[in-house]
Queue: 4 jobs
Job 1
Amino acid sequence: MKLTIFGASSASGKLLTEKALQAGHVVTAFVRDASKLGLAHEKLTIMTGNALNPAHVEEAIQGSQAVLSVLGPKGKPMVMAAESTQNIVNAMQKQGIKRLVVVSVAGIAVPQDKRGFNLVSALLKFFLKDVFSDREKQLAVLETSSLEWVAARVPRLTDEAATGKVRAFFGNPSPSHKLTRGDLADFMLAQLTETKWLRQAPIVSN
């Protein structure tokens, strides 16, 4: 499959790109700084740009069959998930690309969670108000689109070896929940062909 991966030079994005190439996919890796990716492969094309620029996004997904995004704030701007996702959605709908898999955060709630009061989520939302609002808006962008999307809401990410044991669920996040970047990559790649979580945002943890 021909894929575009946004945020490919991040820790999670680099591992996702490596695993996609190992699986035989043809990958366009979208990064701000190509030197930070440090990968070379015959099936890899590296494109530099800014996901907040609609023209850059549209060029990056040209000819792709599916899109994955691990974009998130690193430095400034801290609030960019919703706007970058809107650019991706607009470009995909324009080009007729259907499948989109993105990373979100476990702290934000969706109706399927049926959450009561959760102290951890409340504290995080209080101290990271703008970031959480941005992620809530990101989900709203997905929900109002016509795409086949999956949003993996992740807890604390670790650099430990992938376990192969992943639980996707709705409910309350716990401080004990964590997910290896390798397992996140495997889950995201699996969503390219699976249908169980289409147009849903499960929490994904080990």
Note: Strands lie at 2-6, 26-31, 44-48, 66-69, 99-105, 148-154, 156-158, 167-169, 178-180, 203-205.
Job 2
Amino acid sequence: MAGKQRELTLRFLAQPKDVNYGGKVFGGTVMGWIDQGAYALAAAWCGGYAVTAYVGGIQFEASIPIGALVEVEARLLKTGRSSMHIGVDVRARDPKDDASRAQRCCHCIVIFVAVDAAGAPLAVPVFEPMTAGERERAEYAERFMALRQGIEAERRAYLERW
């Protein structure tokens, strides 16, 4: 599927409504941006509606100040039968600075599932990595999902106990 969109970037300014009392963007706001960027890519890839099934490995590395130019970059990492694994990086910089000075503020993996009007999963086009970078990211997604299985086992054990 060489013609399908494999990545996209949303760009906007961090606004006063996005920040906490310390003048930094709320973590929940960043997570909303992540979901929007990942959804836009998932919808483009599957050509329909998709729902968030998982967000994992979210790591806040740096805060985002009010007025920063924010970039939410979503990349397709791999697909399953109905799922799309998307890596998302959030970067920010002073809009007066060169784009090469953008700092990564957050990274995570989001899994979307394509669904029909009744909410039943739909098959998605197969993602075939074409570049060395895409192959590396697909391998990263595989390793991440293997780790996720262990985390999920721990989560289930905890929930059964409490």
Note: The two ends are 45 Å apart (CA to CA).
Job 3
Amino acid sequence: ALLPQASSLIGVAGWLLGVDQPRHFLVQTLDRGEMRATGGFTGQYGVLTLDDGKMAPFSLQDVNCLDYLTGCLSNGWIFGRRPPAPYNSWWPFGNWGLRDSNLSADFPTDARLVTSVYQHESGQQVDGLIDVSPIAIEDVLRVTGPIQIPLYGETITADNLEAKLHYYQQDPA
């Protein structure tokens, strides 16, 4: 009974893995210290590229680089921007960009909005969106166990992950 289902997923898996052409996915890390509809504030972003099943080198960037002209890709698109309706009537800040764009609790709607904002800000089109929450990473750590980070002299566990993320995000040193 599973064979027909599996064969129908082969095409989808091939598309996701970039078998016919490279696929580019916007990846956002979400911080629930500042809640948004999809799970939290977008602190970092990166583009994950899969080409013929191989992952290209991947890194995350501070969203401020993109949104606020702090030396990265920004074209200044955020300045004076307001969110689209229906969010505009209640959005409290004067500038609106990628960091604030995950406003819909409906993930397909949110993904269209976020990837559109990313395209306007970066000039790059992506094929999809992947949001990563510390909660998901905590769940993985509960299965795999702690991770040693020798460079920082830290052991990261499911119980201290979020506190360590905030410590290193907010400590300029």
Note: Strands lie at 23-31, 41-51, 54-55, 61-62, 128-132, 147-149, 154-156.
Job 4
Amino acid sequence: NVEGAPVLGAPMAPVTIVEFSDYECPHCRAARPVLDQIVREFDGRVRLVHMFYPLRTHEHAANAALAAACAQAQGKFWEMHEQLFEHQDALETQDLAAYARQIGLDMDRFENDLVENQSLRDRVLAHVTEGRRDGVVATPTIFINRRKYEEPPDLEPLRAYIREELEQ
């Protein structure tokens, strides 16, 4: 269930990539430009759906995911997403606020949502629950048209896999 999750690319694309991701995960950070490239190359034929999956072993991942959900509520998810991965080693609360300010969020609303908005916390938790139901145990975990993609998210194999999906 990806309803309400951030989407990059054509909403009705024939190929859907669902990525379960953690903002403190270096492998997720490495996957980000590859997935962005795939969406650009297969313009109109591929959409990327981001699912929050903060790992318990990453101290700041849950709060970073919540900050991204707060940004999504203000229509600036992808801008915050980029900031969080770009500054993966600086995810303290004051850092998150600085990124929110930098991308032009309403700071009163952001700060309130970060502390008080239970529905945004529930959204992050719903993504984690969905991931666990689908067998996600590590990040990034990628599904392409509901099938788990078992390879590392490298550009050439991913391109080939997408082409196969488009030919079906």
Note: The mean pLDDT is 95.
